[in-house]
Amino acid sequence: TTTVTSICIIEELYGDKSEEAELLRYFRDNLLNRTQEGQELIKLYNQWSPLLANAAYKDEVFKVEVKTLIDEVLPLIRAEVK
Question: What is the pLDDT of residues 25-42, one digit of tens each?
Answer without folding.
Answer: 999 999 999 999 999 999
